[in-house]
Each structure stands twice: as C-alpha cells, then as structure tokens.
Write a structure and sequence with these properties.
- Helix content is 47%, strand content 13%.
- It is α/β, with parallel strands linked by helices and 658 residues long.
- The strands form four sheets. Strands 14-13-12-15-16-17-18-19 form an eight-stranded mixed beta sheet, sandwiched between helices. The chain has a seven-stranded mixed beta sheet with strand order 1-2-3-4-6-8-11, with helices on both faces.
- The longest helix has 21 residues.
- The protein is globular.
- The chain binds (2S,3S)-3-hydroxy-2-methylbutanoyl-COA.
- The site of (2S,3S)-3-hydroxy-2-methylbutanoyl-COA has 26 residues, from strand 7, helix 3 and helix 11.
Length: 658
Amino acid sequence: MSAFSDTVRGAVSNGVLLIEIDHAPVNALSTDVRNGLLAAIMHGEAATDVVAMVITGAGNIFIGGADIREFGAPPAEPVLPTVLAAIENAAKPVVAAINGAALGGGLEVALAAHRRIASPAATLALPEVKLGIVPGAGGTQRLPRLIGIPAAIALVATGRIASANEALKLGIVDRIESGELRPAAAAEARSLVGADLRRSGACDVPPARAEAIDAAASKALARARGQNAPREAVRLVRLSADTPFTEALAEERKTFLVLRDSDQAAALRHVFFAERAAAKVPGLEHVKPRKVEAIGVVGLGLMGSGIATCALDAGYAVIGIEQTEEAAAKGRNRIEGLLDRALQSSRIDAAGKADRLRRLTTGAELNSLKAADLVIEAVFDDLSAKTELFACLGNVVRADAILATNTSYLDPDAIAAATTRPERVLGLHFFSPANVMRLLEVVRCTRTAPDVLATGLAVAKKLRKLPIVCGVTEGFIGNRIFSAYRREAEFLLEDGALPQQVDAAMESYGFAMGPFAVFDLAGLEIAWARRKRQAARRDPNARYVDIPDRLCEAGRLGMKAGRGWYRYQDGKRDVDPEVTALIEQGRSAKGLVARTISDDEIRHRLLAAMAAEGAALLSEGVAVRASDIDLVMINGYGFPAHKGGPMFAASQAKGPTA
Ligand code: T1G
C-alpha cells in the first residue's frame, strides 16, 4: 500500500484504488487524515490505472468524525468541505465501504461518495448536536437530499444513531454486505464506471408536507431545553427545501464555526472527554478484573428489579433473592413487567425477552447465591438489615465472590465490617429507575481490594452504565452535593425568595425541574427522616432552616401526598399560598426580614454551593477528579449538560450567572 499521508494509504487492485484511513483509535478526521484523503482522491482521479475508488477505515470503525481534539484551534487546511467536494465531484466513481461507526464528519464523507455499502454492524449518525455544534461539512444538506427533511431532522437534531438496517430502510446506505466488504465495494465501484454518478448534493430534496416537517422538528426539539445546536440543526435542514446547495453549505459552515466556539460547545466537549476520563482510575491501570457471569440480586423491590433487569439486558445470569417465595414471585413479576415494557417499545424482541427470562432464577433460598460471582443487595436502606444480610452472605457465597451494596446514604464500611472479608465489598449505587439511569457510583470502601474495584468498573461498563468511582462519605458524590444544593435553596427561602422563584431561575438556567419541584417529586419524608436522625449531632452554630420540618409536620410530604412545596391536582403543579405563609412564619419566628433576591443571585448561590461541596469532595479525596463530579450531577441530578456541570461552570464563571 502506498502512503498518501501518515494515516491514509491506498492500493490499486484491478483498477480500483482502495483508500484506507488508519488513525487509531477511531479514525478521526485529523488534518493529516484530511490531507491524505484529498491526496488519495486526486491521485485516483489522475492515475491511468485507476477507474474507481473505495474509501474505508482500518479496524472496526469507518470514521469517528472530525478530530474533536483539534476544535481548540482554527480549522487547518484542507478543511473537510474541500475534501468532500473533491470526492463528490470526482469524475471516477467513489464508493464508501462503511465497515463500522460512521459518525459526524465520517458520515459526511460517506454522504459525499457516489454509493454507500455498509457492513451489518455499521452504525451511522450525525451526533454533532451532542457536542453543541451542527454538522460542518454538508450533513444538513446532503442527508435530506437522500432521505427527506423529516427523517433528516429526526437524526441531525437529536444525534441519534441509526443501525445499518435502519440506514438501509431510510436510504442512507444503498446496500448491506454481510460477506467480505472491501471486495464487494470494489466490485460495486467497478460497476459504476461509465455510469451517471449519483451526487447527493445535486439530488433534489424529496417533497414533504409542511406538517410532517413541523412534527419532526417539534419532536426533535422537545428535549433540547436551552440548547442552541438542535434548533440550528433544524433550521439548516429546513433550508435544504428551498436554498441552492452551495449557498446552504456556506450557511451551514458559518453556523458550525460560530457554534464550535460557543460556551455550550465548550461545555459539551468537556462532558465528552470527561466520560472518557472517568473510566481511567489511578492505580487500576494494570489490575485485572475478576470474571463475572452470574449476578445475585438480593431484594427485588423497585431498585432490585431494575438492577436485575439491566443485568439480564447485559447478558448475565441473574439469581434474584427475596425473604419469602411470595415476595420473590412478586419480584419476578416486576422484572417481567420491565421486560414487557421494553418489548412494547421494541427495545427487545420476543426472543430477547425469552432469553432473558431463561437466565433469571428467583426464590427465597439464600444458598442459591453460591453460584454468583457478584451479589448486589438492594434491600431497605436500614443499617441493621444490611449488616445482618452481609453477615449471612459472607457465609454463603464463594470465597472469591464479590459483595456489593446499593445503599444511598449508609456507611458501606460499616456494612463491609459485617463480613469476614471486607476487602471483597464495594458500593454499587444505582439510580432509579436502575434499568434506565446511566449513572452508577462505584464506591471504593476503605478495605476494597483493587481487583474488586476493577471488577465493579468492568461490570458497570458491561451494564452500559457510566461508572464514577468515589470514596466513602455520607451520600457519596451525588447526594452530598444535592444536600448542599438543598441547604442553599432553603437558605434562599429564609432570605426572601419563594420556591417558585428559585425553581424558575434554575429552569431558565437549563434544569428540567427546579430544586423544590424535585424535592416534591422525590418525597420530603426521606430528607425529613435524615434531618431527624442528624438532629442530635447537628452543630448548634450551623445555620439550620426549619421551614421544611414545618411542611412535613403539616403532612405536606410532596407530590405523592398531593402537596409539598406546591400543591398538585390532576398532575398539575400549583403555587400554594399556605406554603408562602409557612415560609413567612418561619422567617418572622427568627426575626428575619425578607429582601428582594434576583434570579442571578439565586443561580449564583446554588451553583457556588454545589461547586464548593465538589471542591470539598476533591480535597477529601472522595472524588478522583472534578469532571467526575460534573458527570454525576449531569447524569443523576438533571444538571444541564450544555453547562458542563457545577465544577466546569464554576471554572467558567465570570460573575452573576446568565
Ligand atoms: N475526535 C478525537 N478523539 C476521539 C473522537 C473524535 N471524534 N472520538 C473518540 N475519540 C477518542 C476518545 O476521547 C478516546 O480517547 C478514544 O478515542 C476512544 O474513544 C465536521 C465537526 C467512535 C463510538 O461525536 O462516539 O464530526 O480516552 O472510549 O467506546 O461535521 O468514541 O482513549 O484518550 O469513546 O470504542 C462527531 C465521538 C465529531 C463521535 C468509539 N463524532 N466518538 O467509542 O471509544 S464532530 C462524534 C464516539 C464532527 C463534522 C463535525 C466514540 C466512538 P482516550 P471511546 P469507544
């Protein structure tokens, strides 16, 4: 193979130039790749022994997109649009052999080719909006020309990944090749020699009814709360209906460059790399995880049945245990219910459900956990119940089996101490619903052995969770920061704000729900019980707001009770003057006079409170890095991803928060 650059090489066989991009780990379109690709196309166009070309990727990825690491600097020549114009306008046929993920600029390369053949495992997407940008090399103009505007909006404005089959149905790819992809693509390219080549940019946009376009747009933007990129993506795709291709390309490029340098894009890039960094835990680089094939779940209530379901989804054998056979049967029904819901929404098929149920055993026989490599307890969050259980488990499970607790607030070291081998205990703190929420706090107890922690991380990855390692502290990372958020929100009430004002300020910042609405959703009784538990050891000099206690004493326990910080009727949330009165009574009882508090101050104080608690977690060594804290708050507590998380936001803050 001859080299067109350090990362692009090619070879001619039977008149077809096969161009291979080999830029580990994901064949990203770095400057060197763009240089090599352009050189290869120009060589192919000029070479007399070349009649057609095929572009493909080394390994099992086609092209992972533009090189995100280059986003900090101005784009270097040749920019991707230049390379794609050379591909699209080539006189000789160019076929894209999509051997794996074709994402962002990678799919744009394929769209510029004259034909696309995919392997069955290929995945295709324009995920740019997840990075706060829009496609910058024709994706918003070539895609609608192939699949129509509504379908293009559904993909570009959400960044959703399409499978090879779906891409074939939509018309993104022309064929799926389950045999040898490269020779098939070469044959396809040869078959196009002399034919009228289909250049996506020159295709007419298939007609679509205005209502269909509007429906696709509002559906795609429903969850885009405060994010600019999805809205811009819709605008650009709509443009393809009536704007000449070249003009629309220029508008797309301009928009891409503006968004690329925006705060939202910087925040989402931070999140992208934070997710990659989170899996790298200092000290575990060379530690081999233990083999886990069978997982035991003790307690099949709301959390336990969710945990069991996501373990089944990941391919594990699951042993579900309850105190009685009757309770175990109820637990099994819950799991079957979750699988039925997945079946109804086509996330699994009937065979998938049957396979999962085949791998599930349930009962009240603790001894059946002898077969488990890992046992996760999800029983009621009570210390004596958990220590008693762990003492039993320690005598039942194999010596090399790992024990995990799903506690949210209790001390996992105290739970571990109930077993004879605390080194094999760790915390696996799932978030509800456990089969849906990506976040998983992997708690390293004081005695947790390195390979036990490494196993926890490996299992989390297989469960398709986002594992964040944290040390032992009350509430771990998420709940500890959430407590600081709650505390400051309550201070704001005493100082002069009202729940609806605080919530509106945080919702305009980007949270789907403000703090008081979230407290009501979760129920006020849990925090109330914890405040009562902590009362005896609370620092008398520390500021304490007792208004929430008054609410709970008045039976206002939250949404489930029909009233909390708000009142709820027919699912609707309303301000309740009774709460305003309770807050005013709380202030006057302390001789406090309310003052006007701006929305800026509210946002500033709540974000600062979260960042300060995050800084404490870092200095205590509970969190490994600041970006882990950002990921916890984004994936577990609704912090808007396009703000980057509390630690990132604090690092960007230039005064009152917009
Ligand atoms: N650029 C630079 N580095 C990248 C990268 C990229 N596009 N994608 C991944 N990496 C790094 C990542 O940081 C990690 O590094 C390593 O590769 C493995 O990644 C013009 C402007 C491709 C599905 O949004 O979704 O194109 O931590 O752990 O699980 O319109 O990576 O080892 O040092 O994720 O096998 C659009 C992003 C860009 C796709 C592979 N593309 N990547 O998943 O590996 S914008 C994307 C992914 C664009 C154009 C616009 C995934 C993957 P390190 P990994 P993986």
